[in-house]
C-alpha cells in the first residue's frame, strides 16, 4: 500500500519535512502508522501526538489526523488506513497539530 | 436623522401610505454585547434596526434578554463609531499622545499590513502577537487559525482573559470537564456561592441562567452567598456571608473539615467510584502503582490485598487506614485529605476569613444535610443519585494569586457529598454531548486517562487542563507551555516581561501586533506597565469599533463591523462555554448580519482571511480551520482553494447538521434545537471516569516545571503545587502597614461588563441610576471612622504608590475591611464621550508582574490593599459619577 503522509501545523517543525512517502505490504492501522512515524522521527513525535505514554495511547486534544480527508478519532486508531480514492495514486494521511500552548 | 427621529410614531403613517414597499422583518441572530452570546431577534424596518429582543425559539435565553442585549441597537448606530481606516502621523506613542490620525483607504492599509507581515514571516513569525478580547471570543475563531497558519504561538485574550479564569476554568475542566460550573437550578435546594454571580447578571450563559436562578429561588432553593459584597447574587440570596477577599479556600476547607471529621457527612460510594479517594498514596505523596500495569493501586478490604484501581475485584476499596503496598506504608488519598483538613478548624478559618466559626460550622451542616447523601430520584425513567446541594465559585473566589486552591477547595465540598453532575448538584456546562439525533454531531465525551482520571472531551483552547501538558522551556512570550495549568498569561504585558524573557534566553522579541477589539491599556492592570510593553512594538494594527485608550498605541486602525453586521456559524459552541446546563434542549443558533456594514467598515474576520490568502498561507489557514472546526469529508476545506467566511460557515453547519441545513437554512430559522438526553445532563453515573480530590499530578508537575525554572533562575514557590487544597495568602494579605487597611477589589456590574457597555448611552443611564456602578462602595462604619462622608471624593492608594480617585458610596453592603468597585471604568478617551470620565479605573491599582502572578496557573492577583484618604479636590471633574446618587 502506498501512502503519502503530510505534516502541517507545528508538527512540521519536529519532522523537519512536510511530506513523506511510505509503502506497506498491507494497510497498517492508523496507530501502526503513527508508531512507524515515531520510530522514524523519534520519541518527540510520539510525545507531541499522543496524550499518554501507556497503551492504548490516546491522541492529544490538539492532534488532528485526516485519512483520505476524513478526521480520525481515538476510536478509529486501530482501524486500517483506508484505501486511496479511485482518483488518487496513494492514500493520503495528514497529521496536523494545533499548538499545545497558545493563548498567551 | 437618528433612529429615534426616523422611526417615531410617524413611521406607521408612512407604512399606511406605501405598504407594498414596506419592509418589516425579525431576524434571528446572537448578541455579542458580552460574551454570553444570548440568542436575539432584531426588528428591522426598511433597513434600519429599531428593536432587539430575545429569541423565544432558542434555549440560549428562551426569548429573554438582559439590559445589555436590548441596548445593542445603540452600539450599532453610535455616531462615534469608526468609519474608515486610519493611519497615525505622529510617530510618538504614549498615553494621551495624539496619534494624528489620517484617513486612508483599505487598499493602502492592507498593502502596508501585508508588506510588514511578509517581512516578519520570513524573519521569525513568532514576532507577531495576536491580541483578542473575551467579549468577541466567539467571533475570534479565525484569529487563532490565522496565528497557527502564520506560525506564531503568541496569541492572548488580554485583560478579559487574564482576569477571567486561569483558576476557575482549569478547576472546572479537571473536575467537571467544563469551562465553569453552576447549580442544577431545576433541582437544587441549597446553593452556596463563593464570589460568583451565576444567574444574577453578568457572565457565561447570562440570560438563561438569570431565568433558571429566578425560577429556582421562587421554587424555594435556599441560597447562601459568600462574598465581600452584597450585590447582584447576595442581594437576592437567603443569606449573605461577608468574607475577607481572597480567603475563600480557608472557609471552604474548614467546611470540608466539618463535613469529613465532625459531621461525617460523606458520600463514600461516590468517593470510591468517581474519585481517586481510594488510590493508595506513598510516603512521598505519589501513587503506589501496580508494578506490571503502572496503574494506581487501591486496598481491597474483601481480599485484604492491593489491586489496580480498575480491577473488577476491587469493589470494596478502602477509604481509610494504613496499608502495605510494594513494601511501603501507604494511605488512601481520602485518609490523607482527611488528616490534612484537620488544620482548617472553623476557629482558624475565622481568623483568616473574618467569618464567625459558628457560621462556618452551620453552613457546612446545612450544605451537608441538604445534599441528602444516599438518596435517588427517577428522571426520564432512570434512577439517578439525588444530591440537591451545590457549591460554586467564579471570578470573586478565583481572581487571586491563590486562585487554583480557592477553586479546588470550594469544589471539594461537592465531591465530599457526591453532588457533582448528578440531579440537584453542581453541573459543568454540558460536558457531554452525543449530538443531533440525525447526524450524531457535535459529539464529545470525557474520557479516562491511564490513571482513570477524567480528561475533558472538548475545550475552548488546545491547551487542556488535564492531563497537564509536559512542561517545556518556553518558546512563547507568555510562557504558557511552562505552566501547564494556565490559559492566559499576564507576562504578555507585564512590567517584568523583558527580565522573564532574558532568563529563558528567548531568541526573539515581539515586533508586530494585530489587535481585535481588546483595550489592554485598561483591561489588564496598571496602564504604565501595559503602555511600556506596547511601546516596544514596531507596528500595531487594531480592528475596533471605536477609538479608545489602546488606539493611542496603534499605527493603523481598521474599522470593524459590529456583531449585528457579521456572520458566525457557532456563537455558542462549544457548549461548555455558553449554553445553559441542566435539563431542557440543546440549541445551536447562528449569528447573521441583521444589516450590512455601512461607511467603510468591514468584518475583521473577512479581512483576516483575506490577509492569510494574500500572504500565501491559504493551505495553512484552511487546514487550521479544518482542524479547529473539525471539518472533514465533503465539507473539508480544500487547502488549494479560497473561501469566504460565509462559505466556511455554510460548510461548518452542513458538517454538523446535514447537507440540507446549511447557512441558508440557519439564516431562515436562526437556531436548531433537539432534546437533551438524561445521560448527557446527568452524565457522571454513566461514565467510568474519576476526578482527583487529591491532586497527585501536581507533585510531578512541580518537579518538571521547577527544574526548568531553576535552570533559568526563575524562583518557583512549590507551595502552590501541593496535592491537597490549601489556603495560601496573596500579597495583599501580607501587607503589614496599618495605613493600608482595606482590600480593594472590583466586581462585574450587571450592565457595565465585558464589552463596549461603558459607551452605550442606555446602559450609562441605567448605571447612573444605580448608586454603586460609578462609585466606590465602602462600609459606612469604616468610612465614618475615617471621617469620610457619602459622596466624598477619595484617593485609593496602594503600598507601591499607585492611586486612583473616585467618589464613595457609604453602605452596609460591603465588608468592613474592603472597598468594591464596579466594572472596568474610568475611561479617558475623548473618542468615547459617553464612557469618558465615568466610574473608577480600578485596574490601575494592579501590579502586573511575576510576583503578583500564581506560579502554578499564571493567575494575576486582582486584589490589592489600599489606604483611603480624602481627595484634596472635591471638584467638578467628578460630577459625572454622582448624577444617579440615591
Briefly characterize the structure.
The complex is a heterodimer of chains A (104) and B (886). Chain A is of the alpha+beta class. Helices cover 23% and strands 27% of the residues of chain A.
Description:
- Helix content of chain A is 23%, strand content 27%.
- With 104 residues, chain A is an alpha+beta fold.
- Chain A starts with a strand and ends in a 7-residue tail after the last strand.
- Chain B folds into 4 domains: 3-76, Single Sheet (N-terminal domain of TfIIb); 86-156 and 466-573 and 593-669, Rossmann fold (3-Layer(aba) Sandwich), CATH 3.40.50.740; 166-431 and 690-697, 3-Layer(aba) Sandwich (Dimethylsulfoxide Reductase, domain 2), CATH 3.40.228.10; 731-882, Barwin-like endoglucanases, CATH 2.40.40.
- With 886 residues, chain B is an alpha/beta fold.
- In chain B, β9, α9 and β10 (222-226) form a beta-alpha-beta unit.
- Chain B contains 27 helices and 33 strands.
- The longest helix of chain B is centred in the first third of the chain and has 18 residues, at 106-123.
- Chain B is globular, with a radius of gyration of 27 Å.
- Chain B has a 7-stranded mixed sheet, covered by helices on one side.
- Chain A binds chain B through residues 8-10, 47, 51-52, 54, 58, 61-62, 64, 66, 69-71, 74, 94, 96, 98-104, and chain B through 129, 131, 144, 147-148, 153-157, 161, 294, 447, 449-450, 455-456, 459, 461-464, 467, 469-470, 472, 476-478, 480-481, 487-489, 492, 619-620, 623-624, 626-628, 630, 632-633, 636.
Any descriptors?
heterodimer, A: 104 residues, alpha+beta, Ubiquitin-like (UB roll), five-stranded mixed sheet, 3 helices, B: 886 residues, alpha/beta, N-terminal domain of TfIIb, Rossmann fold, Dimethylsulfoxide Reductase, domain 2, 4 domains, seven-stranded mixed sheet, six-stranded mixed barrel, 28% helix, globular, disordered C terminus
- Major sheet of chain A: order of its strands? 2-1-5-3-4
Number of domains of chain A: 1
Q: Report the C-alpha radius of gyration of chain B, rounded.
A: 27 Å
Mean pLDDT of chain B: 94
The CATH class designation of the largest domain in chain B is Alpha Beta
Interface with most residues: A-B, 25 and 46 residues
Oligomer: heterodimer
Cα-to-Cα separation, first versus last residue of chain A: 43 Å
